[in-house]
Amino acid sequence: MSMPFYVSPEQLMKDRADFARKGIARGRSVVVVQYADGVLFASENPSQALHKVSEIYDRIAFAAVGRYNEFENLRIAGVRLADMRGFAYDRRDVTGRGLANAYAQTLGTIFSSGGEKPYEVELFVAEIGDAPEADQIFRLTYDGQVADEHRYAVMGGAADVVGVYLQEHYTEGGSLQDAVRVAVGALGHTPDDKGVAQDRVIPAKDLEVAILDRTRQRPRKFVRLSPARLEALLGDRGPLSPSAVQPEDSSPGPVPGGTTPDDPADPTDLSSGHVPPLEDPTSGEPPVAPPS
Q: What distance, in Å, lies between the first and last C-alpha atoms of the chain?
């Protein structure tokens, strides 16, 4: 009879946590920023169909990083829970805190059970109030822990580098334009292959930006920002990449006689492959081919 394979609970939890963290770090970062009139979510997402930021209920939004199929299941479950609670009781009974607690229980149960792998996801659940002081942002990790965030937060990808940029450039109580610029600038501040942080310009069509706008007159406060509106808010950010800057034409102009250095008819052009015949050093005449 073979002995069963034993792993200590501490080692098992550590391995599951490392597995989840590695999967989350492979994705692109999601940034949440508070501004005067609401809460902004931003992420680099070229896909127009697979969203990282979505609406849950009237004043509640959801953002996630990690495996899409896993956090999409969580999003759908949150929408169903909010609809059922709002229908059975009252729409005011649907709160971001309640959804965050439900997500925490689900993620914690999956992480601690040994029957299936942990979810490789991290979540943001945000709810806006009637005033900026009433806004709430909850961050949920893969193991079910809940953290109450303020002002700004980032998860996934190069979260440490992006968080340092937000800490240096964030201004509390700013406008929507200020929030968009600092969030997009933070997403573009990522490390290169050598680990050195550098700034790059992300095209507006590759950005997914949404807001919870408390100034909106409708009960639903969730709004997605189109690429055209993003371009207007971001303004001139310079070239999108170094290749977009066309170098100045350094080729020399035409030479006297109407030929250019690339003209094969020019007998002095050595780059075209046409080499003038050498003269005989004694007679000064062109050499004569030897008889065949």
A: 94
172 falls within a domain: yes
Q: Give the domain extent around 97.
A: 28-243
Rounded-to-integer distance, Cα 213 and Cα 215, Å: 5
φ/ψ (deg, to 5) at 268: -95, 0
Residue 84 lies inside a defined structural domain of this protein: yes
Q: For residue range 127-136, what is the model confidence (pLDDT) as tens digits?
A: 999 999 999 9
Closest by CA to 39, choosing from 202, 201, 190, 150, is: 150
Is the pTM here over 0.70, yes or no?
yes
Is residue 153 in some structural domain? yes
pLDDT of residue 210 exceeding 60: yes
pLDDT value of position 240: 53
Residue 272: the pLDDT is 40
Burial class (CB in 10 A: 0-12, 13-18, 19+), 42: buried
